[in-house]
Amino acid sequence: MNVLRSDATIPCPVCGADGDSAELVIQTAAHMFPDTGERFSFTRCSQCGLTYLNPAVPPEHLGQYYPDYYLPYRGPGAWGRYEGIAARGQGITDRRRVRRVRRALSRAITGGRNTAAGRVLDVGCGHPTFLRQLVDRVPGVHATGIDFVDSGWRDTPERWHGLSLIQTDPVDFVTDHQYDLITMWHYLEHDYHPVDTLRRMREIAHEDTRLLVEVPDLNGLSRRLFGAAWEGWHAPRHTAVYSGSTLAATLERAGWQVVKRTTRGTLDTYALWWMSRMEQIGIDWTASMEQRFLPFMAGRIVTAPLFLLEGIVPLGVQLVEARPHTR
Questions:
Q1: Phi/psi at 78 (5° precision)
Q2: What are the residue ranges spanned by the domains of the chain?
Q3: Fold classification of 61-225+254-324 (topology level)
Q4: Measured at the alpha carbon of residue 24, what is the angle toward residues 20 and 28, in degrees to the nearest 5?
């Protein structure tokens, strides 16, 4: 496969430091993709400490790493006769996100106004099931989703009635509104220009706006256990992998300050571990996952005591709440 990727190093996407001085952290094959022998390098910036893909695949060539069989694209249907159970799992994640949003939104709206008055923007909304649940469970909330592509919603417009869904680069997002709450559910680790995106979000926020950002945790236990197979790398689709400190520094540079951080996110962390294990043993990602469903569930049961510690032990996901700098 001809990837058309330059071997030249790139500057740090957060602070702009010279990529030649960055320290190699790990090399890994493409994840959820046939091993063609190509390897991707994640390096640690010598100035700000960010771990980032260096060099990155040019955005115009990234599409080849999103084939039709890409597991997130296949969704619950990838699990064959267990599709219904898998769909309920996504519903659980969406409900967790709605609960987080309710709490953050109540802090964002000045003077204790009803949350129905709130405006919510979801960046990188993809298949906007979270926004669907939000509108259905919080009557009157104004929900907007933006993404680079509209493939997540264009074929079933009736399903997304009541949502404002816009195809745009977040940096180019045009709006007359200020948002009370902005969410990024596993979006920022894909962004080639995270500071520019976060600055644009700051421009459309008011002084009490809350920003929720969930990303993989570089310092989580799963990364230490699975090494190059850890799905948090998700090479070459993830352009950076954040620790708690580098995520806070990135937000700070863009005009945000972290008010709360937790290692208990909304994403099913066990699923992250399972995908990392499958990467480790080298499964065929093009195949149906039906035969793997029962072992998946058995593993969930066996590891349940460990995942009860999520939030105390950093297992692989982090969620921060931030607000605009007041200074």
A1: -65, -20
A2: 61-225+254-324
A3: Rossmann fold (3.40.50)
A4: 120
